[in-house]
Design a protein that fits this description.
The structure holds 3 protein chains of 3 kinds.
Chain A (H helix, E strand, L loop, with lengths): L2 H32 L8 H7 L1 H34 L5 H9 L6 H12 L4 H8 L11 H26 L2 H9 L4 H30 L2 H6 L6 H11 L3 H26 L8
Helix pairs in contact in A: 1-12, 3-7, 3-9, 5-7, 7-9, 8-9, 9-12, 11-12
Chain B lengths: L4 H30 L14 H41 L3 H15 L2 H12 L3 H5 L1 H26 L2 H10 L4 H12 L1 H17 L2 H6 L7 H11 L2 H29 L4
Helix pairs in contact in B: 1-12, 2-6, 2-9, 2-11, 2-12, 3-6, 6-9, 7-8, 9-12, 11-12
Chain C lengths: L8 E9 L5 E10 L4 E5 L6 H9 L9 E4 L2 E2 L10 E4 L11 H11 L4 H14 L15 H14 L4 E5 L7 H18 L2 E6 L2 H7 L2 E6 L2 E6 L1 H6 L4 H6 L4 E8 L2 E4 L2 E4 L5 E8 L4 E4 L6 E10 L3 E7 L5 E7 L9 E6 L4 E3 L1
The chains are: A mainly alpha, B mainly alpha, C alpha+beta.
Chain lengths: 272, 263, 346
């Protein structure tokens, strides 16, 4: 065997051992635990027939879909604007919009509390305007705001890169053929950034599905999947259900990411 | 080109609104951390007391987070950089599979990952009680970022031809790795390192499940303070977190702009 | 499509200054006749692409500039209202559409029904002899095929004016020459008004009814290919159309005197003069038979001919072409003969 090949295998070995020991093996264990409860492997069926879990699952899916749609809509408008216009203060604006890229979920939750909590900015603003006290931080709406906060910077980074990579001649060509503003957007620009929309949308969706920190900070009473898993595991010591729900959650997020990667083609699935 | 005035105004409005949505709460948090009584407003006076209290109460979480971040960085460097080279130099089915499996922990929610780790290794008390348990989770979660970052740079510089060049001059595989591969992967390693440290310092989903009362990291402490402390302390604590993470994020931004390959 | 369908273009006082203060184009006046092929020739940054984009409607001229198609002012019209066809350097084919959908796109936004526009697009593809590619995706096409599709797409809307921005630059040399003659034939057959931007003088000479040579955002010369080639307006144009040799000297008593010797010329005395000529304009002879004598410094055999580097004695280097069978070797002296109609005295 070629000596460089031997070295390559040697280099791969530690990575392989680490991932096998601390990811593959625990995952197998997780699957096993899910089937070790009183229901056995029927636990998977049980979570799909229990109305509470199904309701939680549906609520989480709807919330994630809404977050994805809102983030992509805002992100597209902002990315097109920032990529197409040069003006004073633009670099600062870009920095502001992408800086919270790695704020953890807990901190994002706190941001939502400061924005829409009992002592929040919106509360004082609405009180000042005499429109009552706006407080929505500790509800689904608060969670929605938090997840949009969390995903917007990532989506923006991906979309801005995609818009800037788009050949400006494509839009000019469409216009030379008589296409108006809306037609250019529909037929050229959006299809052109479709892979980026797909990839960043999938990441936003998967993040919203599994995010835990924001929900944890805002309230333990919001019924989303991550909170349910946490409650089952720590408070009810219901390991089998928690494991089964985790696996269901993992499968959903993995499937969404894999699907988007296949649809969008390789190379764009820059996970963040 | 002439952009329609109305479209321009609408886009500008949305952009400014989005920036305000992201920045105003952060600003409020910073202000609250310095305000004597946030409920009464800035007029109650500015103070450093809250920050001092936070440092007295939570300094151990800050040091633990820094320690774990550096440990995570060291581990990802050792595990991912050589492996990235091995995966890039000969794209094969096996390489695809390895890359896919290593990347999986990003797709699996942190909660599930943590649960799996606890179920598999929670019984080993020494391991469960030590910061190494959290470290393991962080390495698992950040490995793909380092791996991808380095792989992207190596692919972009066409490392295979460079290596063939070095080989034609008589360099052994190990010499090639140290003389050619590492220097050319520098940009990717640096970007990956910034990403790994940033993610590790801010990691909560996994850490909340993995931590013990004696191994609390900064985000875990943050969650504690959000739940049980007054708003000013929580804000001051968040402020400390910002001071740690914002330089990293700015570096990441700057770096991403200059190399263009980081993300 | 047989009768002249093109519009005459009239450009008056059109300059372009960008918001940051860069002047890409000084105000120019230019008339393009209906059905004519006008080539804008010059190096990058000379303003040729800016002028093309002004005609297209992708840029608006500075205040005072005016562009008219067939006498009708179009200055304020954006490109989508001008009914022009444009071929881009990068082709700008829509990757999300098949070949035929690309070609039919202009008809689609004009509201032509699906069947009608596909039939019309198919006939344009047939005219370009690429009907077999109709259902292909763009990333399955070669460079030459993309070029044809881009041309077909621009022609499908039956534009009044066809604008081509370095359409052949992205192709390799052999293909470039082939497509050049194809485009030439097509433009003549369609009798469409075409404005063609290039930095390649061979392309300009082959395709243009007239050539506009541009320099630093201004027009250096307008003329037929023969005029530009044989009577370049100045040094710059001369250099751009391939006159690469220049000898410095003086004119005295009907003789041009230079370091390499003398040449009889019909010109008044001048203290400073330059003799400009092409490598292929000279005959190399024995030193005894010539009044200009050079040192051979390098001989490069190129098959059908030889390319010879000569030194004038004062360090001036010139390039000459010689028949393949002429015995030449570096270090020897050689005589140079220039016929009266093959040089320019500037």
């Amino acid at each position: 065997m070629h000596s460089a090949d031997r070295l390559a295998r040697l280099f791969l070995l530690p990575l392989f051992l680490f991932v096998a020991a601390f990811f593959l093996l625990p995952m197998v264990r997780l699957i096993g635990v899910a089937g070790s409860g009183p229901n056995g492997m029927a636990e998977y069926v049980a979570i799909l027939t229990n109305p509470r879990y199904v309701a939680t699952l549906v609520a989480t899916l709807l919330l994630s879909a809404a977050v994805t749609a809102a983030t992509l809509a805002i992100g597209t408008v902002v990315a097109l604007f920032l990529a197409r216009n040069r003006f004073w203060g633009r670099p600062l604006l870009v920095s502001c919009l992408t800086l919270p890229l790695a704020f953890p979920g807990v901190v994002v939750g706190f941001m939502v509390i400061l924005l829409a909590g009992r002592q929040g900015l919106l509360a004082s603003l609405s009180m000042g305007l005499g429109m009552g006290r706006w407080v929505f931080a500790y509800s689904m709406a608060g969670l929605f705001a938090g997840y949009v906060y969390f995903s917007l910077p990532r989506v923006l980074v991906t979309l801005m890169a995609a818009v800037e990579k788009l050949d400006p001649a494509l839009e000019e060509a469409a216009r030379s053929l008589g296409a108006g503003r809306f037609e250019v957007l529909r037929d050229v620009t959006l299809p052109g950034i479709a892979p980026a929309l797909m990839a960043s949308g999938a990441i936003a969706f998967a993040t919203a599905m599994g995010a835990f920190g924001t929900a944890f900070t805002l309230a333990t009473r919001i019924d989303v999947l991550a909170m349910t898993i946490y409650t089952e595991f720590t408070l009810n010591a219901n390991f089998a259900t928690a494991a089964a729900l985790s696996i269901a959650l993992g499968l959903i997020t993995w499937a969404v990411l894999a699907l988007s990667r296949n649809l969008a083609g390789s190379g764009v699935a820059a996970a963040g | 080109m002439k952009t329609h005035r109305l479209t321009f105004a609408f886009q500008l409005f949305v952009t400014l609104l989005a920036a305000a949505f992201l920045m105003v709460p952060a600003g409020a948090s910073i202000l609250a951390g310095f305000t004597a009584n946030y409920f009464r407003g800035v007029s109650s006076g500015l103070t450093l007391d809250w920050v001092k209290q936070v440092l007295a109460l939570y300094s151990d979480t800050i040091w633990l987070s820094i320690g774990i971040a550096l440990g995570t960085l060291a581990a990802t460097l050792v595990l991912a950089v050589p492996a990235a080279w091995a995966l890039v130099r000969r794209p094969s089915r096996l390489a695809r599979i390895v890359e896919e499996v290593v990347t999986l922990p990003v797709a699996v929610p942190g909660l599930a990952l943590a649960l799996a780790l606890i179920l598999a290794y929670g019984a080993i008390r020494e391991f469960r009680m030590s910061p190494a348990f959290i470290l393991t989770g962080h390495v698992l979660y950040t490995l793909p970022f380092m791996l991808r970052s380095v792989m992207a740079v190596l692919a972009a510089v066409d490392i295979r031809s460079l290596e063939e060049g070095a080989a034609s001059l008589g360099a052994s595989p190990l010499q090639r790795f140290f003389h050619v591969v590492l220097p050319n992967a520098k940009g990717g390693i640096l970007a990956g390192a910034l990403m790994v440290v940033t993610l590790s310092i801010g990691e909560f989903n996994l850490t909340w499940m993995l931590h013990t009362p004696l191994t609390k990291t900064l985000p875990v402490g943050l969650a504690d303070s959000y739940a049980s402390m007054r708003l000013e302390i929580a804000s001051a604590y968040t402020l400390v977190f910002f001071v740690m993470i914002v330089p990293l994020l700015l570096a990441l931004q700057l770096f991403g702009r200059t190399t263009g390959s980081a993300r | 499509m047989t009768a002249p369908t093109g519009a005459a273009i009239s450009i008056a006082g059109c300059g372009k200054t960008y918001p940051d203060g860069t002047r890409a184009l000084s105000p120019v006046d230019l008339e393009v006749k209906a059905g004519e092929t006008l080539v804008l020739l010059g190096p990058s940054g000379c303003g040729k692409t800016t002028l093309l984009r002004l005609i297209a409607g992708l840029e608006t001229p500075d205040v005072g500039g005016r562009i008219a198609f067939d006498g009708a002012d179009v200055t304020a019209l954006p490109i989508e209202k001008r009914n022009v066809g444009m071929v881009f350097q990068s082709y700008a084919l829509f990757p999300n559409m098949s070949v035929i959908d690309n070609v039919a796109y202009g008809l689609r936004v004009r509201g032509v029904a699906t069947d009608a526009r596909r039939a019309q697009a198919a006939s344009v593809l047939a005219m370009m002899r690429i009907e077999a590619l109709a259902e292909r995706r763009i990333d399955q096409l070669s460079g030459g095929q993309r070029q044809r599709v881009a041309l077909a797409r621009a022609l499908a809307v039956r534009p009044r004016v066809l604008l081509l921005d370095e359409p052949l630059t992205a192709l390799d040399a052999a293909l470039r020459e082939h497509l050049r003659s194809e485009i030439d034939a097509l433009l003549r057959r369609l009798a469409i008004t075409a404005v063609y931007v290039t930095h390649d003088q061979a392309e300009a000479l082959a395709l243009g009814d007239r050539i506009v040579v541009m320099k630093n955002g201004a027009i250096a010369q307008v003329g037929t290919p023969r005029e530009v080639y044989f009577q370049p307006a100045d040094d710059y144009v001369a250099g751009f159309v391939g006159i690469t040799n220049r000898l410095e000297g003086i004119v005295r008593n009907g003789r041009f005197e230079t370091a390499a010797g003398i040449l009889r010329v019909a010109a008044p005395d001048r203290a400073k003069a330059r003799l400009l000529f092409r490598p292929e304009a000279v005959r190399l002879v024995s030193p005894a038979d010539a009044t200009l004598v050079f040192q051979v410094t390098q001989v490069e055999f190129q098959g059908p001919r030889q390319r010879v580097t000569l030194n004038a004695g004062d360090g001036t280097r010139i390039i000459a072409e010689a028949p393949a069978d002429l015995p030449l070797s570096a270090g020897t002296a050689i005589g140079l003969v220039l016929d009266a109609n093959r040089y320019i005295l500037a």
